[in-house]
Amino acid sequence: MDMLGKSIVLRGVLGAEQTIVDGEGARRCLVSLTGQAAATEVEGFTFLAGAAESGAGLWIVNTSLTFRQCVIRGCEATASGSGVLSSTNGCNPAASNTSFCHNLPTHIDGWSWQDLGGNCFVDTSVDVNGDGLPDDCQCLPDFNGDEQVAIDDMLQLLAAWECVDCPIEDLNGDGIVDIDDLLSIMASWGACG
């Protein structure tokens, strides 16, 4: 995918869980070589299994893209910048709520980037709940999405007690909602993040 210098918002309507650009271990996922403005945004994509000498997932030169709610996962470069490689020639890319997962040899290389918050860097891509995002980058016990683990989340887990087909409440992915999942809730109690 090449942005061709356009100042646009490229949005994965179904989100990163379902909007996947797969390099298939054979090519880069996204190339931006021609001066997009900071107003250019890429939102809600997974860039998966990119491969190249450098910049296997995203190769950014002379541009200032902003990435929001993306996943850059399993990209491998033979030289540098496996997840993202950005030239320093006027580049000022930014990222928010983006997960960089299991990219080799590094996640980011060659750029002075803006961390807009909520980014996650992990060297594994374990996804017990199967939502396409690494579990280490999420607050899994926050079932109701209110950014805290509290009594409502515990009650939801207890309502699913001993359920063998409840992937949301089965926090450790062992096939049953049990004491281990309750202990996970207790260990995560309070505000997420």
Topology:
Blueprint: E1 9-11, E2 20-22, E3 30-32, E4 41-43, E5 46-48, E6 51-54, E7 58-60, E8 66-68, E9 71-73, E10 76-80, E11 84-86, E12 94-96, E13 99-101, E14 108-109, E15 114-115, E16 120-122, E17 148-149, H1 151-159, H2 179-187, E18 190-191
Parallel strand pairs: 1-4, 2-5, 3-7, 4-8, 5-9, 6-10, 7-11, 8-12, 9-13, 11-14, 12-15, 13-16
Antiparallel strand pairs: 17-18
Helix pairs in contact: 1-2
User: What is the first-to-last residue Cα distance?
Assistant: 33 Å
Strand content: 25-35%
* Topology, number of strands: 18
Write down the overall geometry. Answer: elongated
Helical fraction: under 10%
Total helical segments:
2
Structural domains: how many? 2
Task: Compute the CA-based radius of gyration.
Answer: 18 Å
SSE order in H/E notation?
EEEEEEEEEEEEEEEEEHHE
Strand order of the largest sheet: 1-4-8-12-15
Calculate the mean pLDDT score and round it: 83
Please describe the biggest sheet, giving its number of strands, its sense, and whether it closes into a barrel.
5 strands, parallel
Give the low-pLDDT segments: none
Descriptors:
single chain, 193 residues, mainly beta, Type 1 dockerin domain, 2 domains, 5-stranded parallel β-sheet, 18 strands, 9% helix, 27% strand
Provide a concise account of the structure shown.
The chain has 193 residues and is mostly beta strands. Helices cover 9% and strands 27% of the residues.
